[in-house]
Design goal:
This protein is of the alpha+beta class. The chain contains seven helices and 20 strands. Strands 2, 3, 5, 6, 7, 8 and 10 form a seven-stranded antiparallel sheet that branches.
Amino acid sequence: MSKKNGPPFQLFPLLALCSILSCAHAGEPARLRFEVSLTNGLLSTPQTGRLLVVIGRKDTPEPRLTVSRTGPDAPFVLGSDAKNLSPGKAVFLDATAITFPITNLSELPPGDYFVQALLVSNRDLLSPQAPGNLYSAPQKVHLDPAHRATVKLALSAQIPPERLPDETELVKFVKIQSRLLSQFHSRPIYLRAGIILPKGFQNDPTRKYPLWVRIGGLDTRYSRVAGMMAESSNFRKTWMAEDTPRMILLHLDGAGPNGDAYQVNSANNGPYGDAITQELIPYIEKEFRAIGQPKTRVLSGVSTGGWASLALQVFYPDFFNGTWSSCPDGVDFRAFELVNIYDDENAYVNSYGFERPSERTLNGDVRLTMRREVQIENVLGHGNSWTTS
């Protein structure tokens, strides 16, 4: 095709792409970056939080719903702090932003992706899916770090306000404001819990029951009880069996201002243990006809919940009557995953010079290393730090 008849045919895809990507002038250094802004009229106040750009291979589920994945299907994630973001202002994320699983945006393999921005701004529930967080619509683009381009993403939607899950005859949910935690954080802080009532609970309004306090793995939400009582679940079959002892199950919530609070008092999270034993459990026992005596309270937990259930029994020995703690986190730091923080010189590399694993498959293959685990935590955490992830 001659020049007088128009540009060569192969330029048309590039011209179409430039309607989405702002292409730079010739001669400028190559740089791929993302420009994130806030849609006008969405909110009346500036927003501060952790800004993530999630780059996924697929649009289902949306990229923002996959940020915690670390396996072969993990998306590429860029993280940066955003302060007082408002319409007319923008935050740029480029090769200087901290990333996962690659170490720099320049390492992104060229290709077609679905890109989405997410602003984690909820101060009381540290979770990408927390109510109030903002996100953009997924956008399909071709990305190549070797070519200078700006992908514009507009935060145009907000996760709806919190709504407790639907209840059934035996599955209930509670949310109460904690006086102790609210004083510690200097703002209203709430405790949430899921309840499973025993079979026949409604038949005898005078009968009282013992209390089973259950704690799931890291970040397990109180809403887990709905799945436990799904029609096809083995737990439901056992719970509803005629020979199963009748009791009330209380499932604690693994979410808070700093993520999972481990259900105990701490200088960072506040008096969670006191709030559970002095506020939440007494409320549950009164509301749902529990016996309300130490000899009728038992604990159980798995993984992080195994640690938390053991800790609650140790710290409150006169409040609980026993615990079943399964595969708990280390109770000291001699085996923090595989790291002995008192003796080991390096958390990422062992004494033989090999990358230290943090997760394996059942056949022993390494799925995740300590270095990569901390890398995604740094991407998610304010100030590029795992300490606030």
